[in-house]
Write a structure and sequence with these properties.
alpha/beta, TIM Barrel, Rossmann fold, 9-stranded parallel sheet, globular
Length: about 700
C-alpha cells in the first residue's frame, strides 16, 4: 500500500474528553482487586483522565479457546467509569495465549535465518497465519460486542506496537501470502522478473511456486526482492490491524488507534498506516546513553505530527524515569519528565500517556519506571506526575488542545527509501540515512526552526525550504514533485546519495543522479566514498562564502569547511558552484552547488558536513529561503509555538530550558505565562534552569 498524497486523517477526538489526555497503561490483572480501588483514587489525585486497559490480557479473557471470562473486565470498567477515568480499551492480540501456540504450532514466527520463535515472551504470531487471524478476529469481536457501547470506553487500542518485536516472518503461510501479494502487484511473472532484474545472477522465475521468501542465502539476496518483502511485510501486518479495526467499527462509535513507534520501529510504512487510524498515537522512550536525548524525542514528536498530517496526536507511551531494556537504565533528573512531556505537547500532542500506571513487581519490565513507582506516593516521581497532571489541566483550560504547530521547513522522510538504503553492498557503510537526517534535524532544532517531515510525493508548496537529507530511493513522481516545488519558488537542499534508484532499487538510465539531474543542474559521473577516518577540505564560494564570513566559529574562517565519508565526481551543467574540494579524491572539483530553476533554487551538498560546517551551509540556505534561525539563545533552549485554530488567533509558545542556566527570552509583545503560576509577564521572561514555561500571546 502506498501513501496517498491527497489524504488527510480525520481530526477525531477521544470520546468524552475535551482536555489533554493524561494517564498510562493500566494492568490490573497483576494486582488484587483491593488495589484497583486505591489505584482509581490515586489516578484522580494525579489528574489522570484516561488509562489503556487489556493490552496483555488475552490469556485472562480467553483462558481456553472459545471460552471467555469478562467478569473481571466488567468490574474494572465500571470502577473506572465511576471514578471519572476514561478507558482506551485494547485488543490483546500482541500476546496470544499458550493454548494458541499449542493448538496451532504452525503459526509461530520463523526468522530470516530459519529459527522458529517460542511463545515464552510477548509478540504476535506469524502475521499471514490464517489461524492467528481467525483467533484475533474472535477475541476482538467478543470484546467489541460486549463493550462497544460501554460508557467508559473513549477509544480502542488495537494490538500493541505493531512491528516490535515481530515485523516479518518466513513461515509457509507467509510464503503463500507473499506470492499472492506479488501477483497482485505485478500481475505477471514477467513483471516480477523485470522489476527484480532477475537476469542478473540467473535468477529468472518461470512459475509462481518457484519464488521463495528472501531468507538467508549463500550470498547477498536480490535487493529488489528484499525491498518488496519489506513492503509485503508492512502490508501483511497492516492487514492484521485492518481486520480488527473493521470488527470494532461494526459495534462501536469510539475512535480506533494503534500505537506506532515512528522513530524506533522502521519496518512499518507509517505514511500508509496513518491513513487507517482515527487518531495517530505513538510510543517513544529516551535513549539513556544520549545526554541530549531530548533532541531525538523532539524529532520523534515532529515526525508523529507529520504522519498525522498536522492534526493532534497522542503520545501513548513514554517513561516517567528510567526504562527497562537498555544497557544502563539512567533515571530522569528532577523536572526532566515534565520537559519531555511538554516538548511533545509543544509539538502537537494532545495526549501524554506512560507505560505504565503502577510499577510491576515481576516479569521482564519490573525495573521499568511508572507513574506510581515501587516507592509509592512518597516518591519524587509520583509528586512530579501530580504536578504534570496539574500543568496539563492548565494548558487544557487555556485552549492548547486542538491547536496546530506551524512549520516553514520540511525534511523528507520515506520508509521505503530507508529499507532500500539499509540493504547490503552499498558504496559506503558510513553513508547512513539516519545519521544524515539526525544531523540536519539537530542543527535545525538548535536554530529554533520548527520542521515538519514530508513524503516526497506530497504537496510541499506551504514550505519555504525542503531538505532531502537521505532520499536514496526516489520515484519518478517524487522527483517530478520536487522539481515542480522548485519551479514554483521553493528552495530545496539535497544531500549526497539521493535520487539514485527508482522504486525497484534500480539505477535509472542516464546516470547515478538522473532523477534529480534537471532540478540540481548537474550529473554525477562517479561516487567517491572515502576510507574510514579520511577527510578533506572544501573552499566556499559565492553565497556560501558569505555565510562563512558571517559565522562566529573560528574553524570556518576563510571559507574552509571540513567534510568526510563521501564525495562525488560532478559534471556541473547549469548549476553555480558554491564550494570546491581543495583535496581528497577530486581536488578542484565541485562539491556544493546551487541551481536556479523557474522561480526557485536547489542546493546540492556532496559531502558529509557536521557541526559548524553544516551550520554554515544551512546559513546560506536559510538566507536563500527566507528562514530566520535563532542563534542568540543557548543551543539547548527549546522554543516551539502552537497556534490556535479558532478565531482567537492565540499563540502558545513553549520555552523549554534544557540548560543549567537562566535563559532570558524576549517576545515581541506582552505575554501571559500559563505555567508555572499563570501570572502576567512582560515582553521579557527569564526561564529558570530545567523549567518549562508556556506563554500565551494574544492576536
Amino acid at each position: 500500500m502506498r501513501f496517498d498524497p491527497r489524504f488527510c486523517p480525520n481530526a477525531t477526538r477521544v470520546l468524552g474528553l475535551d482536555a489533554i489526555t493524561y494517564g498510562g497503561d493500566y494492568n490490573p490483572e497483576q494486582w488484587p482487586r483491593e488495589i484497583w480501588h486505591e489505584d482509581v483514587e490515586l489516578m484522580v489525585r494525579a489528574g489522570v483522565n484516561m488509562v489503556s486497559v487489556g493490552i496483555w490480557s488475552w490469556a485472562k479473557l480467553e483462558p481456553r479457546e472459545g471460552e471467555f471470562d469478562f467478569e473481571w473486565l466488567d468490574y474494572l470498567l465500571d470502577l473506572l467509569h465511576k471514578g471519572g477515568i476514561r478507558v482506551d480499551l485494547a485488543t490483546p492480540t500482541a500476546a496470544p495465549p499458550a493454548w494458541f501456540y499449542k493448538n496451532y504450532p504452525q503459526a509461530r514466527v520463523v526468522t530470516r535465518d530459519g529459527t522458529v520463535l517460542t511463545n515464552a515472551s510477548r509478540g504476535m504470531a506469524a502475521p499471514s497465519s490464517p489461524d492467528y487471524q481467525r483467533a484475533c478476529a474472535n477475541v476482538t469481536r467478543a470484546l467489541a460486542q460486549r463493550y462497544g457501547n460501554h460508557p467508559a470506553v473513549a477509544m480502542w487500542h488495537v494490538h500493541n506496537e505493531y512491528g516490535a518485536p515481530v515485523s516479518d516472518s518466513y513461515d509457509n503461510a507467509s510464503r503463500d501470502a507473499w506470492r499472492i501479494w506479488l501477483a497482485q502487484r505485478y500481475l505477471t511473472l514477467d513483471g516480477v522478473n523485470e522489476a527484480w532484474g532477475t537476469s542478473f545472477w540467473g535468477q529468472t522465475y518461470y512459475e509462481w511456486d518457484e519464488i521463495p521468501v528472501p531468507a538467508i542465502s549463500a550470498t547477498v539476496t536480490n535487493p529488489s526482492m528484499r525491498l518488496d518483502y519489506a513492503r509485503f511485510s508492512s502490508d501483511a501486518v497492516l492487514g492484521c490491524y485492518l481486520q480488527e479495526r473493521d470488527i470494532i467499527k461494526e459495534h462501536s462509535a469510539a475512535p480506533v488507534t494503534t500505537n506506532f513507534m515512528a522513530l524506533n520501529c522502521p519496518s512499518m510504512d507509517l505514511w500508509a498506516w496513518a491513513q487507517e487510524v482515527d487518531i495517530v498515537s505513538n510510543d517513544y522512550y529516551l535513549e539513556a546513553a544520549d545526554p541530549r536525548g531530548h533532541i531525538k524525542l523532539a524529532l520523534d514528536s515532529d515526525l508523529t505530527r507529520s504522519i498525522a498530517r498536522g492534526k493532534p496526536w497522542i503520545l501513548l507511551e513514554h517513561s516517567t524515569s528510567g526504562v527497562n531494556w537498555q544497557d544502563r537504565n539512567v533515571a530522569k533528573k528532577p523536572k526532566e519528565m515534565a520537559r519531555n512531556s511538554l516538548s511533545s505537547v509543544a509539538r502537537g500532542a494532545d495526549g501524554i500517556m506512560f507505560f505504565q500506571w503502577r510499577a510491576a513487581r515481576f516479569g521482564a519490565e519490573k525495573f521499568h519506571s511508572a507513574m506510581l513507582p515501587h516507592a509509592g506516593v512518597r516518591s519524587r516521581v509520583f509528586r512530579e506526575v501530580c504536578d504534570l497532571g496539574a500543568a496539563l489541566g492548565e494548558l487544557s483550560q487555556a485552549g492548547v488542545a486542538g491547536s496546530s504547530v506551524p512549520a516553514e521547513v520540511a525534511l523528507l522522510w520515506d520508509w521505503e527509501s530507508f529499507w532500500a538504503q539499509d540493504l547490503e553492498w552499498r558504496p559506503s557503510i558510513d553513508a547512513q540515512h539516519r545519521e544524515r537526517t539526525l544531523a540536519f534535524y539537530t542543527q535545525l532544532w538548535e536554530d529554533k526552526v520548527t520542521v515538519d517531515f514530508a513524503y516526497p510525493e506530497q504537496d510541499l508548496s506551504a514550505y519555504k525550504l525542503v531538505i532531502a537529507p537521505a532520499s536514496y530511493l526516489l520515484t519518478d513522481a517524487g522527483a517530478a514533485n520536487l522539481a515542480d516545488y522548485v519551479r514554483g519558488g521553493g528552495k530545496l537542499a539535497v544531500s549526497f546519495f539521493s535520487g539514485v534508484v527508482n522504486e525497484n532499487d534500480t539505477v535509472r538510465h542516464g546516470g547515478l543522479g538522473a532523477a534529480l539531474e534537471d532540478v540540481l543542474g548537474l550529473r554525477i559521473d562517479e561516487f567517491l566514498p572515502l576510507r574510514s577516518g579520511d577527510s578533506y577540505t572544501l573552499l566556499a564560494e559565492g553565497k556560501l562564502a558569505d555565510a562563512c564570513v558571517a559565522s562566529v566559529d573560528a574553524r570556518i574562517v576563510g571559507g574552509k569547511l571540513r567534510g568526510d565519508v563521501w564525495a562525488d565526481d560532478l559534471d556541473v551543467q547549469t548549476a553555480e558552484i558554491m564550494a570546491r574540494y581543495l583535496d581528497g579524491p577530486k581536488p578542484d572539483g565541485a562539491a556544493i552547488t546551487r541551481n536556479l530553476l523557474g522561480q526557485g533554487a536547489a542546493w546540492y551538498v556532496s559531502s558529509r558536513l557536521v557541526g559548524a560546517d553544516l551550520a554554515a551551509f544551512l546559513d546560506a540556505v536559510y538566507l536563500d529561503a527566507g528562514v530566520s534561525p535563532r542563534r542568540d539563545l543557548p543551543a539547548d533552549f527549546e522554543i516551539v509555538t502552537r497556534a490556535s485554530r479558532d478565531e482567537s488567533g492565540d499563540r502558545f509558545t513553549f520555552l523549554i530550558n534544557h540548560t543549567e542556566q537562566v535563559v532570558d527570552y524576549v517576545s515581541g509583545t506582552i505575554v501571559e505565562n500559563l505555567i508555572p503560576g499563570g501570572e502576567q509577564a512582560s515582553a521579557a521572561v527569564a526561564v529558570p534552569p530545567g523549567e518549562v514555561w508556556v506563554v500565551r500571546e494574544h492576536a
